[in-house]
């Protein structure tokens, strides 16, 4: 059993170590160092420290994949690679490595070994167990990235910046940071994941975010910040009011026979959604000036 | 009245509009502006009944001068009235957007005296949003029937998508229930939107591109794609169907780049599904609509011309119409393959694709190893991504049913309609009648169909 950090660098370095040690893939099993449990009769090696040498080894494995698998594809060699593909037989590996699944290191190991053997033909081997396992993990992470884009909720802090704390079931922040940097280009914000201890930090007008790894304590402190702007309570109440106002009778779970909302919006996210927090039902006494009402409303005359 | 109170009134007033998408245009960040638009859209929340919330969906005002019988905001209704100030609503859009609550604004309104006065207020709101507050995200604007063409044009320069709601599926029903609107007014605005988009397309494609641009709204049966191109893990399934790509990318357009849509109310008037789907096809073809939305009628008003309060919401009928609409737009089904004048209603227990397969069971089973893409797309349980995966995978290996399951095919539905290198699934009966019986029994036994049958059985057919 070869224990490794459950990261892209950790797994690729472990694959490289097994290869350099001339160990056949049948005789080595990669596991995450977080929950490594050797089987009966299995000896354990690693995890190896994430130092310059292991990172350099991971880089070497990655460049080999790029050169022999992605760039080795006949289409790529002839510059006919469609934009819909563009080396995805290799680029899906980082997505798979972001999965929290304990089987991830071994799934990536099997796939990388297969990719080096088969070259670019691996993209057509869609029913091979190693390809199916990797695709399944990559798809899981991609779905979780979409959920991060959907359900991360930002709050305005007293210093004018924005903060969102989100707890995905995969390490999605590095993948979605660009999306939020484009969306909120003009704002200073932080998107923190206290589960995977990662944060994306963005300065106003910057094109990119910085991705930082945090320790558990700091990640928790960031996520728990409650120095909100004076408007925030009212805005959250507005959002919840809109949410409640859009509900329609006669179409719910009882009438449908199943809960459609939960299938689209998993319950594990509900506790962090302001629209589902009963505390936001009351806007409080403070009303921001822009929402105090400009002039009296009418009954039927149409004047604004 | 502060914004919190107004929002309650005006969100409830807008909730019967079924349009729910923020898709159709890709727009990257722009210096000094806030927001982007994504061609796939993004649903940020879901109502208790499972409908997507992607936009701030409100009426600018529910102080309506029209008196449409089905509408809770009609002139003769006694309900709380409110109106946003244009700037107020624009600021709210920005506040919600920055918090990742929404992708943009869905702006409709009750008729403030006249259609033109309404449009002017909406334009003012969108002008503040786009030009003063520099919003670069998604905007969907409703056009009130009868609005002057200049104002429709101005709205289209500020919004990504425009809608003119037909609401009722026949001229007779519209005349009976909406004394202040005519189908001609609706058609005129739709035609103007199409003509303006076509003109812009010709201009962008350059001299020589004359005539009426071909509609890309519906899938074409002879779309030339073998489906053998590489299929990465991340891909929008709808982009892999047989719908033709538009000649001009939406991001290059300045007038309503995400096109136009409309809405039909289902169950308030007697028109059958054949009438509705035929009408939808005509709207797609004639006006190049991107979507026809179907809104199941909810009895919210007392009117002798409409179903009473005890009538169940026709949820299944709405669902089946959406499924049929999807088959027309993406899978190259014609309406007369789904419903006909002699069989004008979609089956409520069985989805339209499965119903078609059962009616045409002599065309099955389909051989997985050599069936063309368009035939694979007709197999229940095989979608555009699954079909492409099959085409890719069969080039390298002989596929079995275990392989199909690994490719993500819904075998529970597909197993009866496929063979793999001549071999049938052992769990599938050989006799077509037994297949039909099993499939229909399974469909009827689902929690969804069981619940709906109980509710709907309590009511006689209303028309």
Could you list some keywords that capture this structure?
heterodimer; A: 304 residues; alpha/beta; 3 domains; five-stranded mixed beta sheet; 41% helix; 9% strand; disordered C terminus; B: 463 residues; TIM Barrel; six-stranded parallel beta sheet; 38% helix; globular
Shape of chain A: elongated
Strand content of chain A: 5-15%
Largest sheet features of chain A? 5 strands, mixed
Instruction: Provide the CATH topology of the largest domain in chain B.
Output: TIM Barrel
Quaternary organisation: heterodimer
The first-to-last residue Cα distance of chain A is 72 Å
The overall strand count of chain A is: 7
Provide the CATH architecture of the largest domain in chain B.
Answer: Alpha-Beta Barrel
Strand content of chain B: 5-15%
Which CATH C-level class of the largest domain in chain B is it?
Answer: Alpha Beta
Show unreliable segments of chain A: 296-304
Major beta sheet, strand line-up of chain A: 3-4-5-6-7
Question: Can you put this structure into words, describing what you see?
Answer:
The complex is a heterodimer of chains A (304) and B (463). Chain A has 304 residues and is an alpha/beta fold. Chain A folds into 3 domains: 2-144, no CATH class; 152-229; 230-304, no CATH class. Chain A has 11 helices and 7 strands. A 5-stranded mixed sheet of chain A has the order 3-4-5-6-7, with helices on both faces. Chain A has a two-stranded parallel sheet with strand order 1-2. In chain A, strand 5 and strand 6 form a beta hairpin. Chain A is elongated. Mean pLDDT of chain A is 89; it is low at 296-304. Chain B has 463 residues and is an alpha/beta fold. Chain B has 2 domains: 3-215 and 255-298, Aldolase class I (TIM Barrel, Alpha-Beta Barrel); 359-457, no CATH class. In chain B, 38% of the residues lie in helices and 9% in strands. Chain B is built from 16 helices and 11 strands. Chain B has helices at 3-14, 86-98, 115-132, 149-158, 171-177, 183-205, 273-287, 315-330, 335-338, 352-359, 373-376, 384-393, 401-406, 411-414, 432-444, 447-457; strands at 45-46, 52-53, 55-59, 104-108, 138-142, 161-163, 260-266, 291-296, 366-367, 418-420, 423-424. Chain B has a 6-stranded parallel sheet. A 3-stranded mixed sheet of chain B has the order 9-10-11, with no helix packed on it. A two-stranded antiparallel ribbon of chain B has the order 1-2. Chain B is globular, with a radius of gyration of 23 Å. At the A-B interface, helix 4, helix 6, strand 3, helix 7 and helix 9 of A face helix 1, strand 1, strand 2, strand 3 and helix 2 of B.
């Amino acid at each position: 059993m070869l224990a490794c950090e459950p990261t892209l660098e950790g797994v690729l370095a472990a694959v490289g170590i097994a290869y350099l040690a001339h160990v056949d893939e049948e005789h080595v099993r990669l596991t995450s160092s977080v929950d490594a449990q050797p089987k009966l009769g299995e000896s354990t090696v690693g995890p190896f420290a994430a130092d310059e040498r292991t990172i350099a080894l991971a880089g070497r494995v990655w460049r080999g994949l790029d050169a022999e698998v992605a760039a080795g594809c006949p289409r790529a060699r002839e510059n006919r690679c469609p934009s819909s593909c563009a080396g995805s037989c290799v680029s899906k590996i980082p997505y798979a490595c972001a999965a929290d699944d304990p089987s991830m290191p071994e799934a990536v190991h099997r796939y990388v070994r297969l990719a080096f053997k088969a070259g670019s033909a691996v993209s057509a081997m869609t029913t091979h167990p190693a390809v199916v396992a990797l695709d399944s993990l990559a798809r899981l992470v991609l779905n979780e990235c979409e959920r991060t884009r959907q359900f991360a909720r930002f709050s305005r802090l007293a210093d004018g910046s924005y903060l969102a704390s989100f707890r995905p079931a995969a390490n999605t922040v590095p993948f979605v940071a660009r999306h939020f940097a484009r969306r909120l280009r003009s704002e200073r914000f932080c998107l923190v994941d206290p589960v995977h201890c990662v944060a994306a930090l963005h300065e106003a007008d910057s094109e990119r975010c910085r991705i930082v790894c945090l320790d558990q304590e700091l990640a928790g402190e960031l996520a728990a910040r409650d120095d909100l702007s004076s408007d925030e309570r009212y805005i959250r109440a507005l959002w919840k009011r809109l949410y409640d106002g859009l509900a329609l009778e006669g179409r719910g779970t009882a009438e449908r026979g199943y809960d459609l909302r939960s299938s689209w919006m998993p319950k594990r996210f509900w506790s962090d959604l302001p629209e589902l927090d009963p505390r936001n039902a009351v806007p409080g006494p403070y009303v921001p000036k822009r929402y105090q009402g400009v002039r009296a409303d009418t009954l039927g005359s149409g004047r604004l | 009245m502060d914004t919190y109170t107004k929002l309650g009134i005006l969100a409830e007033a807008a909730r019967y509009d079924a349009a729910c998408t923020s898709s159709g245009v890709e727009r990257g960040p722009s210096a000094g502006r806030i927001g982007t638009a994504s061609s796939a859209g993004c649903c940020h929340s879901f109502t208790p009944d499972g409908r997507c919330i992607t936009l701030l969906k409100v009426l600018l005002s529910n102080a309506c001068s029209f008196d449409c019988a089905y509408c809770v905001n009609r002139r003769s209704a006694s309900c709380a009235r409110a109106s946003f100030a244009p700037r107020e609503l624009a600021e709210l859009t920005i506040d919600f957007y920055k918090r990742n609550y929404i992708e943009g604004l869905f702006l409709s309104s009750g008729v403030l005296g006249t259609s033109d006065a309404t449009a002017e207020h909406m334009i003012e709101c969108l002008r503040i949003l786009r030009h003063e507050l520099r919003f670069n995200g998604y905007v969907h604007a409703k056009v009130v029937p009868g609005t002057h063409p200049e104002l429709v044009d101005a709205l289209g320069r500020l919004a990504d998508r425009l809608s003119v709601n037909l609401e009722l599926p026949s001229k007779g029903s519209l005349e009976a229930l909406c004394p202040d609107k005519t189908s001609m007014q609706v058609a005129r605005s739709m035609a103007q939107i199409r003509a303006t988009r076509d003109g812009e397309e010709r201009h962008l494609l350059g001299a020589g591109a004359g005539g009426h641009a071909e509609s890309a709204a519906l899938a074409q049966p002879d779309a030339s794609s073998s489906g053998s191109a590489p299929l990465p893990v991340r891909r929008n399934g709808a982009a892999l169907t047989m719908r033709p790509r538009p000649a001009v990318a939406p991001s290059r357009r300045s007038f309503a780049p995400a096109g136009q849509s409309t809405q039909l109310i289902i169950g308030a008037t007697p028109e059958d599904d054949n009438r509705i789907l035929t009408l939808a096809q005509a709207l797609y073809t004639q006006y190049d609509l991107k979507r026809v939305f179907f809104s199941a009628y909810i009895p919210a008003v007392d009117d002798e011309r409409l179903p009473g309060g005890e009538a169940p919401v026709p949820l299944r009928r709405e669902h089946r119409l959406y499924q049929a609409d999807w088959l027309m737009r993406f899978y190259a089904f014609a309406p007369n393959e789904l419903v006909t004048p002699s069989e004008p209603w979609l089956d409520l227990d069985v989805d339209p694709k499965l119903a078609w397969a059962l009616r045409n069971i002599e065309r099955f089973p389909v051989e997985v190893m050599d069936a063309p893409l368009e035939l694979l797309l007709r197999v229940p349980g095989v979608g555009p991504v699954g079909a492409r995966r099959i085409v890719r995978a069969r080039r390298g290996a002989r596929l079995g049913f275990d392989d199909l399951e690994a490719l993500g095919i819904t075998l529970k539905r597909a197993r009866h309609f496929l063979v793999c290198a001549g071999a049938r699934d052992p769990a599938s009966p050989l006799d077509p009648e037994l297949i039909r019986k099993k499939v229909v029994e399974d469909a009827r036994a689902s929690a969804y169909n069981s619940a709906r049958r109980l509710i709907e059985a309590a009511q006689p057919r209303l028309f």
